[in-house]
Amino acid sequence: MRKRIMIRFGELALKGKNRGDFERQLVQNIKDALSDLRETEIQKAYGRLYVLVPTDLSEEAADRLKCIFGISSFSFVEEAKPDLADIQQTALKLVMRKLERGKPGSQPESGAPEGQTLLTYKVETRRVDKSFPLTSMEVSRKVGGFLKAHAPLKVDLYEPDLPIHIEIRQEGAFLFSDAIPAAGGLPVGSSGKVLLMLSGGIDSPVAGWLTMKRGVQLEAVHFHSYPFTSEQSRKKVEDLVQILTRYGGKIRLHVVPFTEIQTEIRKNCPESLGITIMRRMMLRIAEKLAVKYRALAIATGESLGQVASQTLESMLTINQVTRLPVLRPVIAYDKQEIIALAKQIGTYDISILPYEDCCTIFTPKSPKTRPRPEMAERAEQALDVDVLVQRAVAQVESVWFYPGQNKKEFQYF
Amino acid sequence: MIYLDNSATTKPYPEVIQTVQEVMERYFANPSALHAKGEEARRLLEEARRAASRILHVEADEVIFTSSATESNNLAIKGAAFQYAHRGKHLVTTTVEHPSVEQPLAQLVDFGFEVTRIPVDRNGVIRVEDLRRALRDDTILVSVIWVNNETGSVQPLAEIGRLLKERRKVIFHVDAVQGFGKLPLDPKACGIDMLSLSAHKFHGPRGAGLLYLRRGLALSPLLAGGGQEGGARSGTENLPGIVGMVQAMRLTEQQRTEKQGYLERLRRILLDGIRDIPEAMLNSPPDGAPHILNVSFHGIKPEVLIHALEEKGVYVSTLSACSARRQKLSRVLLAMGMDEERAGSSIRFSLTYSNTAEEMKEAVRILQETVKQLREWTEVKR
């Protein structure tokens, strides 16, 4: 037995000429996300997609579909033959199942015995196949009447507890009751590529997720200062990338050896400018990697005013070193809002593991909160910037992460 | 060899033996160590905890690894008694508990606690009504064995849980050592607060046990030290044992769901064969757990029968193996209202999924023959 899931894409439908590309990308992304589920099939119809999936895998498939950008919502649908009697029977089956599971929202008691208020319903029909002998209104009325005769229900056209939707298409009649909201946004891969600076903290994975939401494919860069930062902190970043693949498909992680640069800055530059210069070095390296891997922008988890390096003055000074757009999707978010998103995405529990990252190890006692570009440039004269950047880029380790690899480190259980 | 003493201990799964060895070799570092090897061992430990919690339908932070069921039971009972003594000093249990519950409770009497033991009926089961009447305002703990290790009697956990649900102060502990992997288990659904398991009863390694401790409860630790296991049980974690145990949990639960009704069928063969033996008395209740069959043969001393069967390759036991070396009547059978002769002559057959129908038939044949022979010999002497 397979279940049919109807997939709706909100914003895509507006995309005019590019719509074909967007749809193709979405189909590909869904295919990738479900590739390890047996007997799963994707069917295209005008303005809709259908996923057919074995009943025992339908929950798992639904969990994955919720994460795919470009899907606005989806529904489990019941199939009927395109004939009135069969549509009526199927509608009744759907309603009875809902009644068994209890009222949506209100009292948990099912079956609505005597004296208790009846559940309300409404039937709405869309007739895509105009050759069907009845009009939409007629179908709604006849199915509605049938339901009322056979189930403890009452009509409410405005706020029904149980909206019953019927779509009559060439391929059959599809019935469903509720739409499960999904991630929205645009299909990943439809808007080009961005390089995400991923620290291991709470903000940067959220920034990555928001970037992907607008259809962007991610690559990620992490700066690793072994032995000041541990293998655990690197593992943590890998785990974060693994989670992000649920939403964005495969992601490549570039780990940059950063120890030399950090110690050079520490040795040769004023302590108060350490963070500023470090960020400038990171951005220089990120730009080099972005060009190399054809990313069109760099994304960071900066939120205005959160820490010393995230003032506007700081951003201006740091931003000077690159001509690529720097996307800062969480710039306007409060910490609590970012945390809420991180929990929703599933990165929060990993992000809060207490390992040092390169941004925390050499924190100066009194960092400059308003560094000026000239000050940074002057201080950097003590460094051989180009050589340091080149050397770091040459030693980058790059690893692909794929969805569903799900970090099964141990095979015993 | 026909091994029918699986309630005493089981043979470890070959996979588990391999796992234990592998973990000893590869993940020998201390899970508390900060370096990468220690970190790796810690990840393995926590992965084991998560896997165990999924099998038990509880949360990962509700799983405490111990060295044995004896330790789990001691920790649960003494740990809870000392932790919550300010709320009351009355403890309730049954008359058919395993010594590892009975003895810590007896110890607690010396510390000013009072223990009430609920009697059982002829099937070895308590009446929940009796339990209800035993509860007092100062009752802090109820400890009940799920599946009795001698007879296979099953206590009504869900019903007890419902009764105790109204009494928030009372902690509900279950010794689930014999039931796990044989009957379905859902601690939360039964309102259980603490639950003990032992690895070697389900083909895991010796020296590994588990205690489920509901979130929000604390235990006064028996072993104080480095603060491992959330402070409830200090001591460097026995990682090979733990990993082997959790793997065995998974394999056993898999067998339980795949081999529904299998143990019942084996037990039925044994039971039918035993019924053909004159003056054989069944001590297990008809609706008990599917893997334990307790029988007395009139006029035959259990140790004589055990050795006679052993010579023919059939391994069974008497009483609970822990007390078998002492000449004692079965407390459990006496509590079920059986006379001293019967309580002193019981034999226990205990099964597991690797036993086969052929083994049962062979065991029946040998048993019938042996009992007959022993009776002939003793009659001649008379």
UniProtKB/TrEMBL annotation, chain B:
Pfam families in alphabetical order: Aminotran_5 (PF00266)
Keywords, in A-Z order: Iron, Iron-sulfur, Metal-binding, Pyridoxal phosphate
A molecular function GO annotation: metal ion binding
Keyword Metal-binding listed: yes
SUPFAM superfamilies for this protein: PLP-dependent transferases
Annotated ranges, domain Aminotransferase class V: 2-361
Cofactor(s) listed in the protein's UniProt record: pyridoxal 5'-phosphate
Family according to the record: Belongs to the class-V pyridoxal-phosphate-dependent aminotransferase family. NifS/IscS subfamily.
Name of the protein in its database record: Cysteine desulfurase
Species the sequence originates in: Bacillus thermozeamaize
